[in-house]
C-alpha cells in the first residue's frame, strides 16, 4: 500500500486509518494515539505520506515520556463528576482489616465492614465458616452498597482469616476438622465472595478490583502446627493470579498481599511478641520488627484504588525481608 491517498490529509484521518488497518492495536493504544493527535504530538497538522506517518507514530509509541498524567490515571479512579467506589472488607472489625477499612475511607471510598458481630450501620455480621452465611454476606453487602454513591460493590478485600494450631499429634477427627475449618474460612469463603463479585461485574459489564490478604506462609510455609494455614494462603495466591489472568481484559483486576508477622495487638507489642513465641521472633526479621497494620493497609488501599491496571496479578510482600523471593 502506498501513502498516496494520505498525502496532505489531516492527522486524525490518518489515525482513523491506522486503527482500521492495524486491528492488532490494543484499544488503549488507539486511545493514546487519538490523544496524541489532539495535541499535535506527531509534529504537525499534516503528514507527508503513509510511511512518514507510520515512522512518526511508532516513534511516538516508543517515547513514554510524552504520556501525560491523565493517560496514566488508574481506571478505577473516578473521573470528574463520577461517584467514589464502594468496598467490602471482610474481617474488618480489628487488626489489619480495620486498618484497611480506615485507609479506604480516608481515600473517600464508602466501606462496608464485616465482623463476627454487627457494630454499626455499615458493618455486617457473618460466620465465614458457613457457606450459606457467606452468600448472605454478599447479598446484604450489595443491598447496603445500593445506597452508596456508586450503587454497587466496586472493590472486594478478602481479609478475614483464622490462625489456629492443629498439631499432627491430635486425633484424626480433630486434625481433619481443624484443616477443613481453616480452609473454609481462609480460602473457600474468599473464593466464594470473589466468584460472586466477578460474576456481578461480568454481568454488568463493569470493572472491579479484588485484593486478597494472603500470607508469607504461602511461599515460605509455616510451623508444623499450621500445615492447613500455609496451604490455604498458597491457594489464595494461586486463585488471585488465576482471576487476574482470566478477566484482565474485562477490567477486573486482582492483587494479593503477603504479610509476615503483623502486630495486631492494638499497640501492645510485648503482648504480641509473647503470643508468637517471644522476642526471639525478631531475630529472623532483618528489619528488626514486625509489620504494622497501617503498613498493610497502605498497600491494600493502593491496590484497591491507585495501582495501575498493568499491575494486575501482582503479589506484594510485607515481611521485613524475612522471606525474599
TrEMBL record:
<comment type="similarity">
    <text>Belongs to the short-chain dehydrogenases/reductases (SDR) family.</text>
</comment>
<dbReference type="InterPro" id="IPR036291">
    <property type="entry name" value="NAD(P)-bd_dom_sf"/>
</dbReference>
<dbReference type="GO" id="GO:0016616">
    <property type="term" value="F:oxidoreductase activity, acting on the CH-OH group of donors, NAD or NADP as acceptor"/>
</dbReference>
<dbReference type="InterPro" id="IPR002347">
    <property type="entry name" value="SDR_fam"/>
</dbReference>
<protein>
    <recommendedName>
        <fullName>3-oxoacyl-ACP reductase</fullName>
    </recommendedName>
</protein>
<keyword id="KW-0560">Oxidoreductase</keyword>
<dbReference type="Pfam" id="PF13561">
    <property type="entry name" value="adh_short_C2"/>
</dbReference>
